[in-house]
Amino acid sequence: MSIWWKINIVLISVIALYALYELVVRIMMRRSAKTISQEEFQAGMRKAQVIDVRERDEFNAKHILGARSFPYSMLKETFSSLRKDQPIYIYDQNKAVSARAANMLRKKGYTDLFILKGGMQEWTGKIKQKKID
Questions:
Q1: Phi, psi (deg, nearest 5) at residue 56
Q2: Which of 75, 33, 34 has its CA nearest to residue 51?
Q3: Residue 70's pLDDT is what?
Q4: 10 Å Cβ neighbour count for 90?
Q5: Model pTM score
Q6: Collapsing DSSP states into helix, strand and coil, what is residue 47?
Q7: What is the DSSP code string of 2-19?
Q8: Pick the CATH number of 3-129 from 3.30.70.260, 3.40.640.10, 3.40.250.10, 3.40.50.2000
Q9: Residue 65: pLDDT band by 50, 70, 90 thresholds?
Q10: Is residue 52 within 8 Å of residue 68, measured between CB atoms?
Q11: pLDDT band for position 133 (50/70/90)?
Q12: Where are the transmembrane segments (predicted)?
């Protein structure tokens, strides 16, 4: 077997694994939360708990105004401070961590979960950003 066939097999395998990963994330999101647009997110965020599941340094650098930091790595220890009687709006940089966070919260009994489509990466609303000296 030539080197080109081996390279093609590796590339096809990587693409297949990435496609499988994306499929798993989408299924997890559909089962656990509803994905909403920026407009829907902004319209409902005053009546919801807005949580940022990125790591604390990313949150401190820039986050949606009014959001609370709940890093995914700490969520298992801190989720109990979230109320089950109010909607929870979740965001991260794009969507993968939000899907995992929503899935974990769903398993803990939270039902009113929403994920920001596009995450912080595509957010155009008000933000709080650390000033660079």
A1: -55, -40
A2: 75
A3: 96
A4: 30
A5: 0.80
A6: helix
A7: -HHHHHHHHHHHHHHHHH
A8: 3.40.250.10
A9: very high
A10: yes
A11: low
A12: 6-24
